[in-house]
């Protein structure tokens, strides 16, 4: 730096009451962020959005959500409170041409039975299912890439036929498709949640650059997500606890392991949280010394899925109940898994310029 530039910098810092070191650090950071999210920004849509678990990591990487859709009114409340963006409603009522241009389609779509008649590709096999609307949007807009998420059982649904139709349909549109089952417990979430992920690229070059993420080092156990002070209302009643124990004994006599799941702070991971968790909490009960076990709090349910605590705070501010929050987190995605997929996907989709940071 020459003397003239140094003098100008010193004067500018004095006028702004900031040290030269802080000024340089702040501006370097700004330049780095501009380089990683400015020219490299991409546009995406969030379908069957729930509370935005798939959206979050892509937004963190500089993506702009230009359209979202969710039918459940309570999930929409949580989504809007957190993202300040209200999703459109029923996707079946929205024409693909009404959706703005985008680069990437994201969807955690429901799995419904596909037609049993014949084996035809495309609309004939998918009409009447929610996947049909994804297919229609992809055919209309031909975005660079997509990420779909579903339950692990999709792979074997209808003896594998449903999954084969989905993959063949996506390939018939022109996408190079890759699929993988990934577990939340392998991405630093203390939950045994396995889901299937389907990624596709129009460009063969982009597809060749993509690989699903490998498991990351484990540093979090169940106790790390538990709150230190918990309202007694989350402790289950004597009647409910007796019912859980009775049902577990009944299942044991039949030779199966069905029943409640009891865990403590030392547990490495817990069962998968489901949308029915609000009913009795049976799949994940937290051990308590000297009293009945308790359910997770909504904040703990959020952490189990990799969401920030703030999403619960914001949702409660607009009147979303604990029961609805349990359903929403049970229906959502493991955010840590999506974050790791997102980093690889964005790097592949923006190969020339992408500087997406590692998770």
TrEMBL record:
The keyword Aminoacyl-tRNA synthetase does not apply. It comes from the Bacteria. Belongs to the class I-like SAM-binding methyltransferase superfamily. C5-methyltransferase family. It comes from Undibacterium baiyunense. Coiled coil: none annotated. It catalyses: a 2'-deoxycytidine in DNA + S-adenosyl-L-methionine = a 5-methyl-2'-deoxycytidine in DNA + S-adenosyl-L-homocysteine + H(+). CDD domains: Cyt_C5_DNA_methylase. Pfam families: DNA_methylase. The active site is at 111. InterPro entries: C5-MTase, C5_DNA_meth_AS, C5_MeTfrase, C5_meth_CS, Ribbon_hlx_hlx, SAM-dependent_MTases_sf. Keywords: Methyltransferase, Restriction system, S-adenosyl-L-methionine, Transferase. Its EC number is 2.1.1.37. The keyword Transferase applies. One of its GO terms (biological process) is regulation of DNA-templated transcription. GO terms for molecular function: DNA (cytosine-5-)-methyltransferase activity. This is Cytosine-specific methyltransferase. SUPFAM superfamilies: Ribbon-helix-helix (SSF47598), S-adenosyl-L-methionine-dependent methyltransferases (SSF53335).
